[in-house]
Amino acid sequence: MIYKTLLAIWMAVIIVASFLFTEAATGFPGETSRILFFHVPQAWVATLSFLISMIGSAVYLAKRTVKADYVALSAAELGFLFCVLATVTGSIFAKVTWGSFWNWDPRETSIVILLMIYGAYFALRSAVSDPERSRVFAGVYSILAFVTVPFLVFVVPRITTSLHPENTMNPANPGMDPKTLKVFLGSLLAYTALYVWMLRLRIRILRLEGLRVRDLFRESDNK
């Protein structure tokens, strides 16, 4: 309860500080630069979550522990969610800055490919009826899928010409002023803490669902 209360206060402070404590960056229309405080942490959490999903999958394949699969599945779900949020906030920035929600910029294209890759992960899990085989196939796929993440997130946008600004907060003077840096780092930590809470909650839900299914099977066997 204390953790959730502190997290809620922390997120509220970051949201207020993003608009009232810092100044909008020069060189961008209106207040668009402030989206950095939300877009980048969302993208960071998505990448972190896909990494955790890969690690959970590797542990499951090595030890065949269902708890590890719960971690892998939960992390993949949250990674997909935050990847969608990063896409939406990026599209809002693109509309105001470049005049269109979608420009097929290399960063935009790579994130769509990433969403398709992890969308296939969920399709694979649901397509295999046997739980054990589903976990194994999903575990192998998760590991292979993460191999593409560094390439799509870090490599492709940097080896091709992109509309996406490298120095979002001030292209004329790269770097962040102390106030902006404090809020940005605070937002990264807040989103990470929010992700940890959501991940633990989702894993707990999967465990409860697993126990319920197990009890149902036991009841049917007893009959």
Q: Could you explain how this protein is built, in words?
A:
This protein has 223 residues and is mainly alpha-helical. The chain has one domain. Helix content is 79%, strand content 0%. The protein is built from six helices and no strands. Helix 2 packs parallel to helix 6 and helix 3 crosses helix 6. It is globular and about 55 Å long. About 3% of the residues have low confidence.
Query: What's the gyration radius in Å?
Result: 20 Å
The low-confidence parts are 168-173
Q: In angstroms, what separates the terminal alpha carbons?
A: 41 Å
Task: Calculate the mean pLDDT score and round it.
Answer: 85
Give the ordered list of helices and strands: HHHHHH
Number of domains: 1
**Strand segment count:** 0
Per DSSP, the total helix count is 6
The amount of helix comes to: over 70%
**Content of β-strand:** under 5%
- Biggest beta-sheet profile: none
Characterize the overall form.
globular
Structural class: mainly alpha
